[in-house]
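Objective 1b: paired records.
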Amino acid sequence: MNIQIPLTIKLTEDKQSKSAPWVVYTPELDVASCGPTIEKAKQNLVEAVQIVLKGAVEDGNLKDLLLESGFQISKSKVKPPKVSIDTFNMELNPEQSRQIWPV
């Protein structure tokens, strides 16, 4: 039986890395990987997630892992935890804002 496990993927670029600047991360399982391209980084993340999930299956604790990671399990679906992107306001004086946007 195949199950679908929806995951959030955060993608960032590490400009200091020459060989694998693309970093991908899934917060639900706390798994990260990287690669020279976005596609390869995602492919490497899939492999890393599969290792984690297969290990949980072999240990007999896949359901516990998913529940502890915030997933909800129904009879036929695995539902991910809710994810939102919120905006937080922070007041900076001109000197502080130059840390982000130098003159």
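Objective 1b, second protein:
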Amino acid sequence: MKILIICTGNTCRSQMAEAFLKSFDQRLKVFSAGTHAEAVINPKTVMVMKEAGIDVSAAKPKNVNQFLGETFNYVITVCDTAKNVCPVFTGKVLSRLHIGFEDPASFNGSHVEVVRHYRRIREEIKEKFYDLYTNRLLPELEQSKNF
């Protein structure tokens, strides 16, 4: 099963979602990209994911254009901006989903408040993508094993 997760910069939300899905099941081929990819992953994303036991320090933001001709079981947007400007894929896309989250990078406050906000978004992403995995992706994987 091949999945692409899209946000704007590919530095926070989509990177977290990609990492969590990969941690749930190694059979999933998961990629993430941004509609306007930044140069590097957000350091706070690296920090809060490390706290969750997942190392994303080697992750690099990618532009969604490099995936446009590929086939995916799922293309999932995780921010409203990406949902609204998501390009048309010339490859086959079986299902498109939107699972939106606030942008932790847009939160203003003290360092402690900002990190708390990143952790909250991380936990929301983990929870919603685990629900997606257990209720939709895993049953599809198990069903395809039987054929």
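The two ends are 14 Å apart (CA to CA). The domain at 2-145 is CATH 3.40.50.2300 (Rossmann fold).
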